[in-house]
Specification:
Structural class: alpha+beta
Oligomer: single chain
Order of helices and strands: HHHHHEEEEEHH
Largest sheet: 5 strands, antiparallel
Number of strands: 5
Helix content: 40-55%
Length: 209
């Protein structure tokens, strides 16, 4: 009995070693999956409302970005004083706002396309995916800064035309929190989401995520 058990264990180990592991998603693949969702959002702009595009984009955006990390950096020194519940609420608010902003900005299609140029990896846990958004009138540089997490590669910030969205958020939010509490900041963020989810937003383009 013991000999049979040992043989079965050894066989299981050999089979596990022989079974190819699923390849980890690369930073470029992560970004390209997001781009595919954004193209679909643009192509559906003439038949779906902003709220409907938001619902379609939310799962992809949530899976693509490390919003807990983004929330911590965006809140700056104020993060340390937040409760776990407040941290989760801020993370959720930023997640939803990012999806809503993408839904509002990527709302019509006229031949736009994305092009992945290269991936630079200065550190084992950090990568920069350089891409272009190509329209009939211009080419927009989009650089995605990614970090490796326990759940694989995640986007933590995006630079468009050299302007980094996370740096802008950090400056805006830390300044706001000097005179307001976290509840007021979350309300301010949620108000931007509501412009899309309630289909009451203007066509004004915002920075995303």
């Amino acid at each position: 009995m013991k000999k049979t058990l040992l043989m079965c264990t050894a066989l299981a180990i050999l089979l596990a070693a022989a079974t190819p592991s699923v390849a980890e998603e690369t930073p470029a693949q992560l970004v390209e999956k997001l781009h595919a969702a954004l193209l679909a959002s643009m192509q559906s702009g003439d038949r779906l409302s902003c709220a409907q595009r938001f619902q379609a984009l939310l799962p992809v955006v949530r899976a693509s970005f490390d919003f807990a990390f983004i929330a911590r950096l965006a809140a700056g020194r104020h993060w340390r004083s937040l409760t776990d519940a407040q941290r989760r609420a801020l993370t959720t608010a930023l997640t939803r706002m990012s999806a809503a902003t993408y839904a509002r900005n990527f709302d019509s299609f006229s031949g736009q396309r994305f092009e992945t140029l290269e991936t630079r990896q200065p550190k084992e846990t950090k990568a920069v995916v350089k891409t272009l958004l190509i329209t009939a009138r211009e080419k927009v540089d989009l650089d995605y800064i990614c970090r490796k997490t326990k759940n694989g590669w995640k986007i933590v910030s995006v630079s468009a035309r050299g302007v980094n969205d996370l740096s802008m958020k950090r400056a805006e939010y830390t300044h706001f929190l000097k005179d307001h509490d976290i509840a007021a900041l979350i309300e301010k963020i949620d108000a931007k989401t509501d412009k899309c989810t309630r289909d009451q937003g203007s066509s004004e383009k915002e920075a995303a995520p």
